[in-house]
Design goal:
5-stranded parallel sheet; 25 strands; 13 helices; 26% helix; Pyr_nucl-diS_OxRdtase_dimer; NAD; alpha/beta; FAD-bd_OxRdtase
Length: 484
């Protein structure tokens, strides 16, 4: 012990000597860890991508692990944009977009991070652990790394149909794309807007365009809106809500071409042609795997395949957010669920593992929600349709009632569906909808899925009653009691 104490002091006074020691000891040796913890040496982590996942990872490393040198690289001019708020400011439901940026470059610089904005990563040399970069002005440089975090996100699906390169056709993911759409909707000559894709982003931007006084046509190849998240018992209600607010639905219809001279003037589908002044594509997203697809193992949809520590097939490379797979507790297997909340959690998990604190992801349920013209829908886990797609045998139980007792003047209808596995009877999904805010209930179902709670366990769940909030026979209890 006396020898160790003397040796430690020697290393603290002569840090360069450590590098000789490192050559003859394994990386996780006692002395290596000691040097890191004392701050004699630093580990360098490079993060490519600075939206939700990258920011969560950077904050965790900078706030918790003082031995970390953190380098952040992004091709954009800004970081931390809450894209879920785009439709709100485009639709003028909030005054401006400024507060959709929840942090900035200065905040990370003050914590000691090295930041390269407006910088593209042209190549990653995984063998030599070097990131090759190019700034917007054309200057090139390299960053070496001990650990690399890929937070490259996703890219919008862009079918190369005839006329796809015409002016007046927009996507909606980045802040700058939101600005472009907002500018288009400000033009007097833009009167008819076609939205391609009736998922969350498509439905939200359709509402926003309608709030701006435009004629809105909403297209999707599925037979209902929101088909990826909800069964028809719910999604058809949203369809009726959209129709009620004069959004022209074209479901079960596929876009095949765009016509026009320089700017789009006509949208052609497999069922007809429509005069349009603006097209907004919201078909969906694919993982952005350009930097590592030839080196790293991939999930079946092209996302980087990661373990529960967010580690890729290269032990020095982690992948987080939309470019990586997740572990689905409903399916009990890897899956791809691109949500901002999943991205944040994955960034935290990766950072702790890199920092030296072993941490395993507890998995996700894919909890989500939407509110359109005051109608709220929330879901978690699997719908019946999704479960069948993945080959999971399920049953479901439905219930519909008023939120509060009938004598309460402020009231609204509530719908609920609980999906459970046939064999184990564990809850694997839930959907709820109402003009009331019933969103908090879905969090309970998310935890139930994570913990493997059965439908039978919910039948006599201790749920309080007060007329201001709910019925004595709560809709959650009633749905569970009516299960087979």
């Amino acid at each position: 012990m006396i020898f160790l104490s003397i040796f430690h002091k020697f290393l603290l006074h002569f840090p360069h000597f450590f590098y000789i020691i490192k050559k003859i000891t394994i990386e996780n040796s006692y002395y290596y860890l000691y040097q890191i913890r004392k701050g004699v040496i630093q580990l360098k982590t490079v993060i490519i991508g600075t939206n939700h996942a990258g920011i969560a990872a950077a904050n965790t490393l900078l706030d918790t692990y003082k031995d970390q040198e953190v380098v952040m690289i992004d091709r954009n001019t800004n970081l931390s944009y809450l894209g879920c708020g785009t439709a709100l400011w485009v639709g003028r439901q909030i005054e401006s977009y400024e507060n959709l940026f929840y942090t900035n470059e200065k905040a990370f610089a003050e914590k000691g991070a090295k930041i390269h904005m407006e910088t593209s990563v042209t190549e990653v040399d995984f063998q030599n652990k070097v990131v090759c970069c190019e700034k917007a002005n054309g200057s090139k440089f390299q960053e070496s790394y001990d650990k690399l975090i890929l937070a490259t996100g996703s890219l919008p699906i862009s079918p190369k149909i005839d006329g796809h390169d015409l002016d007046g056709i927009h996507f909606l993911k980045l802040f700058q794309e939101g600005q472009a759409v907002d500018a288009e909707l400000s033009k007097e000559e833009v009167q008819t807007v076609a939205v391609i894709g009736a998922g969350y982003i498509g439905v939200e931007i359709a509402e926003a365009a309608k709030r701006r006084g435009k004629n809105v046509l909403l297209f999707d190849v599925e037979s209902t809106s929101l088909a990826s998240y909800y069964d028809e018992w719910f999604s058809k209600d949203m369809d009726e809500n959209l129709k009620k607010h004069e959004i022209d639905l074209h479901l079960g219809e596929r876009a095949t071409a765009y016509l026009g001279e320089e700017r789009v003037q006509t949208l052609v589908t497999d069922k007809g042609s429509y005069a349009v002044d603006l097209v907004i594509n919201a078909i969906g997203f694919l993982p952005n795997n350009a930097l590592g697809k030839d080196h790293l193992k991939l999930f079946k949809n092209g996302a980087y395949l990661v373990d529960r520590h967010q580690q890729t097939s290269d032990p020095d490379v982690y992948a987080i957010g939309d470019c990586a797979n997740v572990y689905s507790n409903a399916l009990q297997q890897p899956a791809y669920i691109a949500l901002a909340t999943n991205a944040v959690r994955s960034g935290i998990v990766a950072a702790h593992n890199i920092g030296g604190t072993p941490l395993e992801s507890i998995g996700v349920q894919g909890s989500n929600g939407i509110s359109i013209f005051g109608y709220h829908m929330v879901s978690t886990g699997l719908s019946v349709k999704a479960a069948e797609k993945f080959g999971l045998s399920v049953k479901y139980t439905d219930f519909e009632d008023l939120q509060r007792p009938g004598f309460m003047t402020h009231n609204a209808n509530v719908k609920i569906r609980i999906v459970y596995e046939t064999s184990s009877r564990r809850v694997v999904g839930a959907q709820m909808a109402s003009f009331e805010d019933i969103s908090m209930g879905i969090h309970m179902f998310s935890l139930a899925i994570e913990e493997g709670v059965t439908i039978d366990k919910l039948k006599l769940l201790d749920i309080f009653f007060l007329p201001h909030f709910n019925q004595p026979y709560n809709y959650i209890t009633m749905a569970a009691l009516s299960a087979e």
